[in-house]
Amino acid sequence: MKSPRLASFLAVLAFGLSAFADPIPVSHQVGGFAIGCQAYSFNRFTLFEAIEKTEQTGSKVIEFYPGQPLSPDRRNVKWDHNASDELIQEVLTKLQKHGIRGVNYGVVGIPNDEAGARKVFDFAKKLGLYGITTESTESLDVAEKLAKEFDLRVCIHEHAKRMKKDAAGQMVEDTSYKVWNPAYVAELVKNRDKRIGACADIGHWQTSGIRAIDGLKMLQGRVLSLHMKDRAALGPGQHDAIFGTGIADIGGVLAELKTQGFNGNISIEYEFNWDNSVPDIAQCIGFVRGWASKAQ
After folding, report:
1. Which has the closest alpha carbon to 201: 259, 251, 134?
2. Angle 55-228-18 from CA coordinates, rounded to 5°
3. Euclidean distance between the first and final Cα of the chain, in Å?
4. For a surface tag, which of 9, 86, 157, 186 has the fewest beta carbons within 10 Å of its beta carbon?
5. pTM summary value
């Protein structure tokens, strides 16, 4: 006979795992997309507050990141793949209370050993996530094996192109960092299982001088998730902007995703107005909702 505590955990766990074959159901979509918040948008707050703020934006999904403090009364407890089953239950309960679904986790390192990597995948599976976001390209053999076993997507994230000073003191590209380039990521994953692809961070692309739609086309069929951002201009030094006010052509991005048959998660990682970003993100969600109503 199950204990009441175990029965409660199993019931909440079912919320996370429900409809896993169709990992992000229509009930958690806006305008035909599973679009919500990357919890890093609220990194000055705790995870529980990030879930609450995600609900306030009008979105229904969240992407976790490792190391966020758990709650205002337990800031010493960090949320990551080392969480106990009891802590996972608490977070699932919090998600359910606010009608939010966890969909992704990252950017997180995936160890290049199966035992270490399995810990990350097991955590994601218990939460009923769609994918894991990483830049651990050296671990792709292990990640691919576990992606098949757990039926989870491995989404390779791209930060912006890195620069360094050469011997003459001139700024040049740091060629040791390659995943900023969507063409490189496309080549990296082309012969791997379809669960291995890209987390297209279109904001970092814009910092690197790559237009969002161009990057998506380079990754045709391999875009598994997005960190969606608008910017005022290409190049470094630009902060995030409300969708539709910058150069990203968010409407064109959404149309391209539809053309590609994209069905993954879109995370708004809004790295501006840190202390009061909910109104801005809500307008971004509203843009997607409005675009979808016009596109029908």
Report:
1. 134
2. 50
3. 51
4. 86
5. 0.91
